[in-house]
Amino acid sequence: MTGRSVLKSTRTSLFCRKKSVYELLFPMIWLLLLPYEASGKNKRIGIIGGGIGGLATAAFLNEDPDLDVLLFEAEDHLGGNAITIQAKGKDQKLVSVDVGPQYACEKGWAEYLAIMKYYGIFDEESVHTMPGSIGIFSKMSNRDDMAFLSPRWNSFLKWKHMANAVRFSHFYDSSRKIYTSDNKDYDGETVSQWLQTLRIQNAFKQNVIQPFLASILGISFSELQGIAVSGLVKYFVFSGEWYWRKPLNIIKKGMGTSLVELGEKLHKVHFFMRSPVSRVESHSDGKSFLLHSGTGIYSVDEVVVAVHPKAAYSLLKSSSLPSEVLQALQDMSEREVPIFIHRDQDFLPRKSRFQSFLNIRVDKTGVTTTMKLNEIDASYGDILKSWIPDIGEREKLRSSPLLIAEKTFFHPKVTPEYIKAREHIRKYSLKENVHFAGAWSAYADTQNSGVVAAWQTARRLMRSDTKEFWTREIPSLKHIAD
């Protein structure tokens, strides 16, 4: 984590205790165990990365008695981008705040919620449920210029907001058609090309649609133009209903804490924390792999790579993967997404009646997006969560006592070239024993796409009766294609 450290981590020491045992044991005896590891009765699976993709893969494989699963994580906690901290909210009482992913929707996150429910981590009593609300504004010298405000009661006092709500519904319907279409031409169409075809007035596109789309990915207006429209719409229309009509579920103890708890439930999985894998090497037998990690060298029969593309390339460049697959990993560009947890109310509209859960402030080059967390529950007090692209504003906040925590994430930049490279990698992993289960390898880089990618991988590794067990427990898994 860069900048100011978080107040208090919810990370468990359970994995650190496991790690200390393995650190002492494996560096001394791995040479003796190496031949046995590759030829034992159970197939040995090595998972690299303890984010949602790797952890969900381990959760699916945990129910298969014929598999030995080893999971390697470079950090001292599981969860990847899902990190929960403790901060002082209303009346100075500690509340759980997610630095990364914030909320889940029943429809769009069906597989994520289902696997959490299966392991007893998620239930209706453990969440705050709320409708979403959005405000898009620019800060003038002495007032807020609201371009869009919905579904606040006061948003319908002005004709502009009523008309824009109707226009936004038309825009959403157009996005939904792309999301449900099997037309591969959309993979090659950029946002710039798509916006030109939308039959909506240009002022609305410029003042509302572009800021909204830029806020989803945390990128500038210029970067937005080259994004693939088929990849972008998957970030906001997956639920089947528009934002304010669908309930948002915010896990009270935090998504990060929940994933740590999921790891504690996986008793068959061997966790190696603070054990980064530096490279994956093809074994001399041509059938297995050697994982070089911070705690030793391990022989495995199958490798599941659940890290970002650039990291995957660094790990696999010494393996026997075809050069075109390695090149595809190199070609997948990433975007930097800095997130700040803070109390600086200047990031909101000045008038409280214009403030929403999601507040998108527009300037010349892009947007700054701020979540007002007390819209979830009053216990959050004055805590805010912002995506801040401007370097000057970041530095100003870093030197302010209003900063609570910050974290920079890296997400794929979903261009047409990116989608083409991803499809090439997915086709390769269908027939080989190196598999990709990062959230990026499915339809979008979200927590639910991580579970989907995990299932696409896990079902190729598990017994048929284990696969049938999971499709009975989570029926939606039947409909997930390769």
Question: Explain this structure to me?
Answer:
The protein is an alpha/beta fold. The chain folds into two domains: 14-80 and 254-330 and 414-479, FAD/NAD(P)-binding domain (3-Layer(bba) Sandwich); 133-245 and 344-401. It has 15 helices and 19 strands. The strands form five sheets. The protein has a seven-stranded mixed beta sheet, with helices on both faces. Strand 11 and strand 12 form a beta hairpin. Helix 2 (52-61) runs parallel beside helix 14, helix 10 runs antiparallel to helix 11 (323-331) and helix 11 (323-331) runs antiparallel to helix 13. The protein starts with 13 loop residues before the first helix and ends in a 9-residue tail after the last helix.
List how many beta strands DSSP finds: 19
Rg computed from alpha carbons, rounded to a whole number of angstroms: 23 Å
Low-pLDDT stretches are 1-39, 153-157
Q: Helix/strand-derived class? A: alpha/beta
CATH class of the largest domain: Alpha Beta
Q: Helix content range of the residues, please?
A: 25-40%
How would a crystallographer describe the biggest sheet?
A: 7 strands, mixed
What's the shape? Answer: globular
Relevant CATH superfamily of the largest domain: FAD/NAD(P)-binding domain
| Overall CATH architecture of the largest domain | 3-Layer(bba) Sandwich
CATH topology of the largest domain: FAD/NAD(P)-binding domain
Report the sheet-strand fraction: 15-25%
Tally of DSSP helical segments: 15
Strand order of the largest sheet: 7-6-15-16-17-14-18
Average pLDDT, all residues: 84
- How many angstroms separate the termini? 35 Å
Q: What's the domain count?
A: 2
